[in-house]
Amino acid sequence: MAAPDGVVGVEGGSSETAPILSDSTTGDEKRPQFGTRFLTDPRQVFQHNAWDNVVWTEEQEASAKRKVLENNQPLPLEKQEEYDNRANEFWNDFYTIHENRFFKDRHWLFTEFPELAPQSSLNHESRLEVSGTDYSQQGCLDQEQRSEVAAFAHTDGDIPGSSAKYRIMEVGCGVGNTVFPILKTNNDPGLFVYCCDFSSTAVELVKSNPEYDSERCFAFVHDLSDVEANYPVPDGTLDVIVLIFVFSALHPDKMQASISRLARLLKPGGVILLRDYGRYDMAQLRFKKGRCLSENFYVRGDGTRVYFFTQDELHEMFTQAGLDKVQNLVDRRLQVNRGKQITMYRVWIQCKYRKAVAETEERPCLA
To answer: A Gene Ontology CC term for this entry (predicted)?
Structure first.
């Protein structure tokens, strides 16, 4: 389950550059890891395919707000319920039509999210004491969770990835455009990658990919919004959870519970990585009347849904889930179609939130 706006460059950068992110709450630039191509002369806008860290004018932001207000009349409740009830059907149809031809592999992830790179799984210090050799020695877990983790570590392969030293799970994996770059780039034998999607069609496409290796990866169908559904791993066993243009597909009423459920899966020191749509992104401004489900929540022509976040909304949900902020940045980027002389303003949000590591003095009480 991933956003189908990828045809206009939603997921990642163009072939020439990739995002530079800034903290809109402080105005400070953060980690100019990708591009440093800034538009200083508007007359040069069509010289390149994309421009980084674009600053909006007050008039431009006011115009975006007016556009959203014009098209914010929600559909009747019965229509909203229909889209909610048929969400699985719409995503299966999407992947049946597009299969694996729609998105490009997200190689930019290793720059923006070094937690996915080989050094992260090999360098214990960089993992911020995410795990030790005994997974039961984690003070943030209650007794029942510690028992589950201890059992998981001694299943002798009955559960996929039970012997792994570093575990990544992508939720909303689509056809594997994050998973397969990770597996190709990171050859650490201690790494295991879990990936799931709401769409059974997408999961079958992942499993049928020649690069799928069941010794290093486990793909499964899962509904993120169903907080009662079981994951293939117990709580407190994941180092990294990846959410790339997927959280926005949930109904807003189900977002908080879903994040809280994912947070329980993390080891102390584990991190959730998110990249998703920001408020007033071009995709939001393009929606016409009759597509609004609720405030900042829309349905596309193919029946799939999308929400557009603010940094504060995401921060509140992550902190309510008991996670600490590492990063919460907004990426305002100008993409250009030089052939058609069209400019496209994109707004994405990128977050990293970490589960606290237990204090040393708490650990002697653990068995």
So the answer is: cytoplasm
